[in-house]
Amino acid sequence: MYLKRALDAWNSLTLARQFLLAGGMVFLLAMFVIGNLVSRQIEEAVTRNSAASTALYVDSVIAPLLPDMQRAETLDDFVVRALDETLSQGALGRRLLSFKLWKRDGTILYAKDKNLVGRKFPPGDELSAAWNGQFVAKLDQLHGAESEAEQQSAEPLLEIYNPVLQPWSGDVVAVSEFYEIATDFKRDLEAAKLRSWFVVCGSALLIFAILSIIVFRGSRTIESQRRSLASRVGELSGLLEQNRHLRQRVQRASQRASAHNERYLRRVGAELHDGPAQLLAFASLRLESPNLLGSARKPPESAKEINLIKSSLDEAMDEIRNICNGLVLPKVETAKLPEVLRMAVDAHVRRTGSLVDLNITEPSLMLVPSEKICIYRFVQETLNNTYRHAPGARASVTQTVEDNRLVIAVTDLGSGFDVSDTRPEALGLAGLRERVESLGGEFCLKSSPQGTTVTMAIPVEEHATA
């Protein structure tokens, strides 16, 4: 649980912050390790080189004073006095705090502290290494019973074990142990170590800063691209969802339009059957009248029959023309929006003699033919409904543009009706709704005792009139 939370919290951080945390810890660890390694190497190298030069100097001064150490079990008084004088005066007297000369069995042959002469101590690691011909130097790392006096010193000491070699054979015949006062040496060593730490830390911080700048720039670019991609994905998702809804609406509208077209065709067939067909049938029956075919026909009765037949045929032709006028569109495909609206209004006024007001607020719209046909049918059908259901009521047609949508509203000042009582299968309103929604538009019907308003709105793009 805690590991998952930690991983979630880590993954929620930006790339730059992850680099600062992880990279910072790695750089600090690397800087600490490298700094310690370099510092230790400097300390060991400087200590060994300084001790080697001191040992070489001491050996060059002390070696001529020593007898044949392979044969001598002790040092005579002459050698002891010479060593005392040499180690207590001059440069060696100032530099060396103490001096010891060891035999192989761990016995001290000579020491500045006379209490140690002749005493035997178990050889330590440094002394054993010196008897094996190795040079040993250590700074402020005093231990062992033989160096109790040196451990009390407040000065930093450089402890040196130097093998004494026989000149002609090169064998180790004794080991000299001495302690150099290393005040200046330790100060210089600390300064060198401080400079090494400064170089290591400065280099690491500089590298980390350069990498941080690169990572921050990359992280900022990635974050910007991620936000842009997320925004585009969101927009695309919204568009896909909108397209899905529109496709479903178009599919439903197409299905309903097919059903309404079938009902519309049945209505046209019914109007032809109940109107012109009945009149033609009546005329056909009158043609078989005895007043026209019988031998006893009389001219006045024949003329009367002929007039009835002609009247019936003329009435049938008038009804057929009226039906055709409702089915056949004028040439609206090439007309502009104001012309389409005027053609629909003028046709209604000529046919019914009604009063219709036309208000056009935005003529500079370019529409495709399907949109023009939809607008013409909308105005035609709504004005016909007004004439049938609110005879004598003044009507108006208004065209506006709202939020990049073309809005056509047909209003009458009739007594209105209850919208909830409208039959779903009513051909006029249902057909208009399907026409408008098939273009991605919206259809709205509102009615009250003060009048009725039918509105259509379809998305369009505005263009300046050429």
From TrEMBL:
EC number: 2.7.13.3
UniProt cross-references to InterPro entries, sorted A to Z: HATPase_C_sf, HATPase_dom, His_kinase_dom, Sensor_HK_TwoCompSys, Sig_transdc_His_kin_sub3_dim/P
Keyword ATP-binding tagged: yes
GO cellular component terms listed in the entry, alphabetical order: membrane
Annotated transmembrane regions: 20-38, 196-216
Reaction catalysis annotation: ATP + protein L-histidine = ADP + protein N-phospho-L-histidine
Pfam families the UniProt entry points to: HATPase_c, HisKA_3
Domain Histidine kinase positions: 267-462
Keywords: ATP-binding, Coiled coil, Kinase, Membrane, Nucleotide-binding, Phosphoprotein, Transferase, Transmembrane, Transmembrane helix, Two-component regulatory system
SUPFAM superfamilies listed in its UniProt record: ATPase domain of HSP90 chaperone/DNA topoisomerase II/histidine kinase
GO MF entry, a single one: phosphorelay sensor kinase activity
Coiled-coil ranges from the UniProt annotation: 236-263
PANTHER family: NITRATE/NITRITE SENSOR PROTEIN NARX-RELATED, NITRATE_NITRITE SENSOR PROTEIN NARQ
Protein name in the entry: histidine kinase
Organism per entry: Mesorhizobium denitrificans
